[in-house]
Amino acid sequence: MVPRVAIIGGGIAGLTLAKALDAHNLSAVVLEARRRHDLQGGAALAMAPNAMWVFRRLGLADRIVAAGSRIDRYLFIRADGRPLKTVDLSRISGKWKESSWAVPRSHILQTVAEAVPKDWIRWNHSINALHRTASGYTLYQESGPAISARVVVGADGAHSTVRQALWDLPDAQYQGFIALRGLVVFCLPKTHQHTVVQVWGGAGEFGYSPVGEELVYWYATMRWPRPPADPPAMDDIIRHFQRWTPPISNLIEATDPSELLIHPIFDRLQPFGVRPAVTLIGDAAHLMTPNTGQGACQAIVDAYVLARELYEHPEDAERALQIYRRIRLGSALAVGWRSRRLGQLIHWQRRGVGTLQTLVLRAVPTSLVTQAMRQVVGQPERLS
């Protein structure tokens, strides 16, 4: 009997899982608390070779990159504009044999959603309780009938209802900084095409890259003593970065304040235990900081591996979930720990000492930076 999978959450993790299950002729339902309209926005995402490898196998790669820009190198510079290091991203692809891309988040979500059978996705459907049954789970909605499923997958993000209901684990830990993101119409110099420029300036960072022909995606982080109840105003952000190298101020000022995204950054790197007929993927499983750019990519790989294991063990969902957890959880948590340490380095500051992160980056050979990035992306043989 083919397992019917209830996917709680219709973000990148949940939609990719639904598409991967459909590719294996398995059935599923996706329950997303938000409306479909809420897929719009979200600035852009870095799609590293591991994520693109999955999308290639799902037949979506060409559609995903149609609205994006290929990223061939990382250019690290200081806040005053002086260069620190250049990393050739072709050296991190390895056996994935895929390039890195910057793509609008809304385009990725829309592309994957359109590839999932229409009757699988139920927008504006919130789950408020789960009960174990002899054959799986019964899920109770805030409105609408209960839903039965043999397998439940929590793909519902940082504040996962599934995780909170079935695992007694610590809350996510605030990492002491906030992230800012914007997507603007802007013309970069030709020298910065196919390039992520990463600016490190002491207790923070600012990065930007082209996205498609006319857009530029920018992101930044700032130290913040506690999760902000009242986020910083645009004037505060401009003031913080006003002495940093151009075009940083121009990119911030070109951003519509109503479209500026500001989020306090948390992570949660505790492994979840085995539960019958249920598992977690993406941020629900391994919430990480954005510093390695791997949060969405790891979720996409999670979805691919989980769908494959459910296909390969159609009569033994428990075994499929155990194999998925063994393959993915430790690897994703290791990336999360690397991301946390990098975030701590970027935001470390002590009066009279200077910017430790720029000193470290200057001292470390480019080959070691490349090796570290390759280790974060991993290799496809680790998926078996």
From TrEMBL:
Origin: domain of life: Bacteria
Cofactor(s) essential for the protein: FAD
Pfam families on file: FAD_binding_3 (PF01494)
Sorted UniProt keywords: FAD, Flavoprotein, Oxidoreductase
Keyword Flavoprotein: yes
Keyword Glycoprotein annotated: no
Any GO MF annotation of the entry: oxidoreductase activity
FAD-binding domain ranges (all copies): 5-328
InterPro entries registered for this protein in UniProt: FAD-bd, FAD/NAD-bd_sf
Name of the protein this chain belongs to: FAD-binding domain-containing protein
